[in-house]
Amino acid sequence: MGRRVYVFFTIIIIILTIYGARGWIFSSEQGDWVGAWSTSMIAPYTDGISQEGFENQTIRSIIQPHIDGKNMRIRLSNEFGSSPITIEEVNVAVSKNEAATITGTNRKVTFDGEENISIPPGEKMVSDPVSLKVNQMEEIAISLYVREPTGPATWHPLSIQESYISASGNHVSDSSASAFKKKEEAWFWLDGVDVIADPSVKGSIVVMGSSIANGNYSTVNADHRWPDYLAQRINQGSEKNKLSVLNAGVSGNHLINSGVERGENALARLERDVFSETAVTSLIFHQGLNDIRHHPEYDSEKIIERIKEIIQACHEEGLKIYGGTLTPYKGSSMYTKEGEETRQEVNEWIRTSGAFDGMIDFDKAMRDPDNPKRYLPKYDSGDHLHPNDLGYKKMAESIDLSMFK
Q1: R_g of the chain computed on alpha carbons
Q2: Fewer CB atoms near the end CB (10 Å): N or C, the chain?
Q3: For residue 167, what are the contacts with CB-CB under 8 A and spacing of at least 6?
C-alpha cells in the first residue's frame, strides 16, 4: 500500500512539474503567464539578409514589453524555415541604449534545461522561465548566437525597431555594443515574450492588421505604433483591469490574397498569430484597405464576406473581436474613386452591422472634417496612407477602453 501511494504522488509531482513549466498550472501567489510582446513571423524574402541567413554571428533584438512581469520566457520560431535552425546560446538582458545592455542584468536562457537548441522547420520552441523582472517601461535585449550557417530565416521585416548583428563570434553576454557592427530593421526567429503577470492583468488583446498596425512611418526605435500607445493607455489608467497588447501587424498584408513578402492572408494566419497567443482574450481587427487598393475588382461584399469569416472564427474560439473602420487614403498611390466607394461601404457595414463585439471609428478620428476622404494634415505621415506619430497616438486615444471590461 505504501509503495502504491509513493508511486501515485511521484506521478502527480512529475505531471505538475511538466505542466507547470508550460504555464498550464499556476498558484495564485505566482500569477499567470500572459503574452507581454509578440510579432508576426513571415517567410524569408527571395533575396537579401533573410535569404542569406547568418553564420557565426550574434543577433541582438530589442523589444518593448507591454506589461510588467516577475519572470519571463521567450518563444522562437522556425515556422517558415526549410531546415532545422540550431541556436547555440540565448541570453536576455535589460537594454541600455542601442545594442548596449545594463551590466548585471544578463541571464542565460535554456530550453528544457539545454542552452543549445535545434528547432525543426515549421515549429516553435518556448524557453524555460527566466529569472528576470520585466518592467513595461524598460526595453529588453534578446541575443541569439548561431555558429553554423542558418539558411533562410523566419523573420519580421520592417519592424520599426533596429536589431544589431555582430561581425562574428558569440557575444550574447556582452554588455558593450562594440561587437555589433550592423543594424537591421527586422526581428529574426523571435516570435514572442511571455511574463508571469500580476493578477490585475486580465489577459492580452491582439491587434491584427497590416502596415498601419505594424506602425510604418512612425519613428524607428521609439515604440510609437498605435498598439504601443494603446498599451500605455490601458495600463496607466487602471489598477484592476490591466491588459497586454500584442501586435500582429504585417506590412502589406491582405485579407484575401497576400503575396509571399506580405505574409499569409489574415484568415490563414489567425491560428498562429492570434489564437495561439498566451492568455489572449480578444482581437482588434483593422484590415482591408490593401485589398481595396491592390484589387480594384474586389467589391465591398467580397471584403465583408472575408471579415465575417474572421469574426466567426474568433467567436468559435471564444474570443471577442472589435472592428476598426478603414482610414482615409485619398492622395496616396493607388487611390481610385471606385476604391473610395468600396471603403465607404465597408466602413458603413462595420459601423452599423453589429457583427463585431465593438466598433472603433479610426476613420472618424483621423479624417479631415473639411475633406473627409483625406487625413487631417497633422496626422498624415506625408504619404497620405499612413499616420505619423501623432496620428498613431490619436488612433489609440479614439478607442473606448470600457469595451474591454
Answers
A1: 22
A2: N
A3: 57, 179, 181, 182
Phi, psi (5° rounding) for residue 376? -60, 130
Contact 156, 214 (CB under 8 A): no
CA distance 77 to 122: 8
Instruction: Tell me the sheet residues that pair with 387.
Output: 380
**CA 81, 214, 105 angle in degrees (round to 5)?**
75
- pLDDT for 30: 62
The pairing of strands 163-166 and 180-184 is antiparallel
Paired strand residues for 201: 242
Q: Which amino acid is present at 24?
A: W
Using one digit for the tens of pLDDT, what is the confidence trace for 106-164?
Answer: 999 999 999 999 999 999 999 999 999 999 989 999 999 999 999 999 999 999 999 99
Per DSSP bridges, beta strands 140-146 and 89-97 are antiparallel
CA distance 10 to 193: 32
Helices and strands (DSSP H and E) totals, the chain: 10, 22
Q: How many CA atoms are closer than 13 Å to the CA of 352, on its beta-carbon side?
A: 6
How far does the chain reach from its first CA to its final CA, in angstroms? Answer: 51
Contact between 340 and 300 under an 8 Å Cβ cutoff? The reply is no
Mention every residue, 6+ apart, whose C-beta is less than 8 A from residue 74. 90, 92, 109, 126, 127, 130, 142, 190, 192, 193, 194
Position 71 scores a pLDDT of 96
Nine-digit cell at 230? 494603446
DSSP classification of residue 128? P
DSSP string, 384-395: SSSB-HHHHHHH
CA dist., res. 134 & res. 67, Å (int)? 8
- Residue ranges with strand state E in 159-269: 163-166, 180-184, 186-188, 190-197, 201-209, 242-249
Nearest by Cα to 191 from 262, 124, 252, 263: 124
DSSP-assigned beta bridge partners for residue 52: none
Give pLDDT, residue 272: 97
How many angstroms separate the CA atoms of 80 and 121, rounded?
7
Separation CA 188–CA 53 (nearest Å): 9
pTM summary value: 0.91
Quick check: 287 and 270 in contact, CB under 8 A? no
* pLDDT tens sequence across 66-106: 999 999 999 999 999 999 999 999 999 999 999 999 999 99
